[in-house]
Design a protein that fits this description.
Its EC number is 6.5.1.2. The chain has about 675 residues and is α+β, with helices and mostly antiparallel strands. It folds into 6 domains: about 60 residues, Orthogonal Bundle (Helix Hairpins); about 230 residues, D-amino Acid Aminotransferase, Chain A, domain 1 (2-Layer Sandwich); about 100 residues, Nucleic acid-binding proteins (OB fold (Dihydrolipoamide Acetyltransferase, E2P), Beta Barrel), CATH 2.40.50; about 70 residues, DNA polymerase, domain 1, CATH 1.10.150.20; about 90 residues, 5' to 3' exonuclease, C-terminal subdomain (DNA polymerase, domain 1, Orthogonal Bundle), CATH 1.10.150.20; about 70 residues, 3-Layer(aba) Sandwich (Rossmann fold). Helices cover about 35% and strands about 20% of the residues. Strands 12, 13, 14, 15, 16, 17 and 18 form a 7-stranded antiparallel sheet that branches. It has a 5-stranded mixed sheet with strand order 2-11-10-3-9. A 4-stranded antiparallel sheet has the order 5-4-7-8. Helix 12 packs across helix 13.
Length: about 675
C-alpha cells in the first residue's frame, strides 16, 4: 500500500472537518456561511482524495452516508433504553386532568410542588433511536414494540441532519423523528406521476417507507430530515431540566426543532396548543399536536412510568381532520363472539392523508343518535388520526328519498334462521347462534385460498382482522377495500397495505372453476368445479341450470347436483330495496359480477374434449414432480381432454408417481392401476 503524502492527509482532514462544520451550521443552527454549490465542490474534492487514497476514508466522512449494497433484510435491535409510547390528550380538560395527576403523584415527596411544563411540537414522522459511542454514530433503530426494533442504520446515515460524529466523544442514546418536507413531497410526487407511478398520500408515509427500504440509495434520494427531541442515555451528567436537555442535544450537533415553550400551568399549555393548531398547518413539515413534558428532571424521575408510557409526558393531539362524503350503505359485521356491529360503506374519500371507504357506526343507539340514513352526506374524521368514524350528518343535504334506518330482525350471517337478540342492559345485539363467526371465517379463508381466488397476502390472520373490524361482510366487499381502510389494522404499514390492495386487484380476473371453489358450495371441490365450468361455460348458465340437467352430467352424483341447485336457488331472506326477489346467493353473484372479471379457459364443450388425446382418461397425482408443480400437471392433463381425480379407484386410468409418493401409490398397486413415473408421464403429455 502506497504511503499517503502528509500534505494530502492534512488536506483531507481539513476538508472533512470543514464539510462537517458547515453541515452542522446549516442543519443545527440554520446558518449558511457558504453556498450549497461551494459546499458540493468541497465534498467532490473530498471524494476524489478518498478515491485515490482509500485508506484515508473515515467513518464520519460525508461520503459514507451512502455506502454498500442493498441489504437482504432487516436485523433486529434490542433497545438499551425501553421505548415508551405517550398517552394522548384530545381536549383542554384532558390537560387539566394531567396536571392534577402530576401534582397528586409528586405531593408525598415534594410538598407544594409546582412543576413547569415544556411544550414541544409533535412532528408527524417516523420515530428513530440513535446510538453513539465515543461520539461516533453506530446504530439507528425503529421503535418496534418498545423493546426490539429494526436496524435502519444504513438508511438513517444518509440523512444530512444526522451527525456521523458528535462535537465531543460522548456515549449517548437519543430519540427523534424522521420526516419529509411538504416541498420535497410535492417534488417527489411530480416525478412519480411522470413515471406513471401513484403519488404518495402524505410525508409521514414516505418517511416511514423510505427508512424501511433495503437499498440506502432510495432513502438518500428522498432528502429526509430529522428533529431530535429526547436524550435517553448519556455517559455525561444529565441536564437539570428539559430546557437544558434540548440545548445539550443541539451542542452535540443534533438538529432540534426551534419551536418550544415553557408553560407555568395548564392554561398556558392550552394557549400554546391553540396557537399551533393553526400555525402547525403552515410549517414545511407535518405537526399533529403538542408534546407536554414536565420540565424539572427531579420531578420527571419521581413520576416515572406506567405500564404503557411516562407519567411525566402526554401528547396533546390536534383535532382530527374532518371531511364529508356519502353514506352508500349500512352492513352488519358479526364478530367472533357473535356481537353485531353496523359498518358504514362510504363513497371513498381522503382523510388525514389516506383514502377510506369504511367507518364503524358502533351500534343501534349510535345510528339513532346520528339519525344516519343511506344516501346522507356525513362528516367523517379519524379518531386519533387512525380509525375512521362518522361524527355527524349534514341533514340539509339529505335526499328526499332517504328513509329512517330500520334495525333488522334477522341477519343471514348469523346462521340457521338468522335470529338476533339485544344483549340485556347493553346497546349491542348478537347472534342467537354463537357459532356463526367460526363459519364465516372458514368460508372467507376458503375464498381467498390458493385453490380458489389465490389472493396473495390475504391469509387467515388478515381475513380475521378484516372481519373483526367490520371491513368485509360479503365476498365482494374485499374488492372495494382501499389502502386507507387496511392501514389502521394491527401489523399493517404503508407498504404492506399497498401490497395487499394490489394483490386483491390482481385477483379480480378469476377462472370460473376457481370462483366456484371459493363460493363454498356444499360438496363441490376442485374437480367438480372444473367439471361444471367445462359443462356450463358461464356462471349465469350454471345458476339457471335445473336439478335434472345437473344430475345428467357424467361425474355428478345426486347429492352434488342437489347441493348446487339449492345453493343457486336459495329462498330470499328479505327483498332488497330494488325489489330483487332472488335469494342471498343470487344477490352475491350479481355483486361479484360487478367487481370480478370471470373467465373460463375450460369453456371447451365436452364434445370437443372427447376428440382430444387424453379424453376418457382419469389421472391421480401423488408425490412431487421435478419438472412442474401439481397444479401445472393438472392443467396439462385437462388441456388434453383428461380428468384429474383426488383418489384412486378401479375407474382410474393412470397414477402419476413423483418423489415421495404416498398411499395412493400402494392403492394403485392393489387395484392393478397403471403407474407412470415422471418421464413416462411427460412422454404421454408430448
Amino acid at each position: 500500500m502506497n504511503k499517503v503524502p502528509k500534505d494530502v492527509q492534512e488536506r483531507y482532514k481539513k476538508l472533512k472537518d470543514t464539510v462537517n462544520h458547515h453541515r452542522r451550521l446549516y442543519h443545527v443552527y440554520d446558518i449558511e456561511e457558504i453556498s450549497q454549490e461551494a459546499l458540493d465542490s468541497l465534498k467532490r474534492e473530498l471524494s476524489e482524495i478518498e478515491a485515490a487514497h482509500p485508506s484515508l476514508i473515515a467513518a464520519d466522512s460525508p461520503s459514507q452516508r451512502v455506502a454498500g449494497k442493498p441489504l437482504p433484510g432487516f436485523k433486529k435491535v434490542r433497545h438499551s433504553v425501553p421505548q415508551w409510547s405517550l398517552n394522548d390528550a384530545f381536549s383542554p380538560d384532558d390537560i387539566r386532568d394531567f396536571d392534577t395527576r402530576v401534582k397528586r403523584f409528586l405531593r408525598p415527596k415534594f410538598q407544594g410542588a409546582q412543576p413547569t411544563y415544556m411544550c414541544e411540537l409533535k412532528i408527524d414522522g417516523l420515530k428513530v433511536v440513535l446510538t453513539y459511542e465515543k461520539g461516533l454514530f453506530t446504530t439507528a433503530a425503529t421503535r418496534g414494540d418498545g423493546e426490539v426494533g429494526e436496524d435502519v442504520t444504513h438508511n438513517v446515515r444518509t440523512i444530512e441532519s444526522v451527525p456521523l460524529r458528535l462535537s465531543r466523544a460522548v456515549d449517548v442514546v437519543v430519540e427523534g423523528e424522521v420526516w419529509m418536507s411538504s416541498k420535497n413531497l410535492e417534488s417527489l410526487n411530480r416525478e412519480r406521476e411522470k413515471q406513471g407511478e401513484p403519488p404518495f398520500a402524505n410525508p409521514r408515509n414516505v418517511a416511514a417507507g423510505s427508512i424501511r427500504q433495503l437499498d440506502p440509495s432510495i432513502a438518500a434520494a428522498r432528502k429526509l430530515d430529522t428533529f431530535i427531541y429526547e436524550l435517553a442515555a448519556t455517559s455525561e451528567k444529565f441536564p437539570k431540566d428539559q430546557v437544558g436537555e434540548l440545548e445539550y442535544l443541539r451542542e452535540l450537533g443534533f438538529k432540534v426543532n426551534p419551536h418550544h415553550s415553557i408553560a407555568a400551568n395548564p392554561e398556558e399549555i392550552i394557549a400554546y396548543w391553540e396557537t399551533w393548531k393553526e400555525k402547525g398547518r403552515k410549517q414545511n413539515y407535518w405537526v399533529d399536536g403538542v408534546v407536554i413534558k414536565v420540565n424539572e428532571r427531579p420531578f420527571e424521575e419521581e413520576l416515572g412510568y406506567t405500564g404503557k408510557g411516562p407519567r411525566f409526558a402526554i401528547a396533546f393531539k390536534f383535532p382530527a381532520e374532518q371531511v364529508t362524503t356519502i353514506l352508500e350503505d349500512i352492513v352488519f359485521q358479526v364478530g367472533r363472539t357473535g356481537v353485531i356491529t353496523p359498518v358504514a360503506h362510504l363513497k371513498p374519500v381522503s382523510v388525514a392523508g389516506t383514502t377510506v371507504s369504511r367507518a364503524t357506526l358502533h351500534n343501534e343507539d349510535e345510528i339513532k343518535r346520528l339519525d344516519a340514513r343511506i344516501g346522507d352526506t356525513v362528516i367523517l374524521q379519524k379518531a386519533g388520526d387512525v380509525i375512521p368514524e362518522i361524527v355527524d350528518v349534514v341533514k340539509d343535504l339529505r335526499p328526499k328519498s332517504a328513509k329512517p334506518f330500520k334495525w333488522p330482525t334477522r341477519i343471514a350471517e348469523c346462521g340457521g334462521n338468522g335470529a338476533i337478540e339485544r344483549i340485556s342492559g347493553e346497546s349491542a345485539w348478537r347472534c342467537v347462534d354463537k357459532r356463526s363467526f367460526a363459519v364465516t371465517r372458514r368460508v372467507f379463508h376458503n375464498f381467498a385460498s390458493k385453490h380458489a381466488l389465490d389472493i396473495e397476502g390475504l391469509g387467515k390472520k388478515t381475513v380475521d382482522l378484516l372481519l373483526e373490524n367490520g371491513l368485509i361482510q360479503h365476498f365482494d366487499d374485499i374488492f372495494t377495500l382501499t389502502e386507507g381502510d387496511v392501514l389502521p389494522l394491527e401489523g399493517f404499514a404503508e407498504v404492506s397495505a399497498k401490497k395487499l390492495i394490489e394483490s386483491i386487484q390482481k385477483s379480480r380476473k378469476v377462472e370460473l372453476a376457481r370462483l366456484l371453489v371459493g363460493l363454498s358450495i356444499p360438496h363441490i371441490g376442485e374437480e367438480t368445479a372444473i367439471l361444471l365450468a367445462q359443462e356450463f361455460r358461464t356462471l349465469d348458465a350454471l345458476a339457471g341450470a335445473s336439478e335434472e340437467k345437473l344430475n345428467a352430467i357424467s361425474g355428478m352424483g345426486d347429492i352434488m347436483a342437489k347441493a348446487v341447485y339449492e345453493w343457486f336457488h336459495d329462498k330470499p331472506a328479505r327483498p332488497d330495496d330494488s325489489g330483487h326477489s332472488g335469494g342471498e346467493n343470487l344477490k352475491l353473484i350479481a355483486r361479484l359480477k360487478k367487481v370480478l372479471i370471470i373467465k373460463n379457459s375450460l369453456s371447451m364443450s365436452r364434445r370437443r374434449l372427447d376428440n382430444l388425446p387424453l379424453a376418457g382418461k382419469t389421472f391421480v397425482l401423488t408425490g412431487s414432480l421435478g419438472s412442474m408443480s401439481r397444479d401445472e400437471a393438472k392443467e396439462k392433463i385437462r388441456s388434453l381432454g383428461g380428468d384429474v381425480a383426488g383418489s384412486v379407484s378401479k375407474k382410474t386410468s393412470y397414477v402419476v408417481a413423483g418423489e415421495e409418493a404416498g398411499s395412493k401409490l400402494d392403492k394403485a398397486r392393489q387395484l392393478g392401476v397403471q403407474i407412470l413415473v415422471e418421464e413416462q408421464f411427460l412422454r404421454l403429455l408430448a
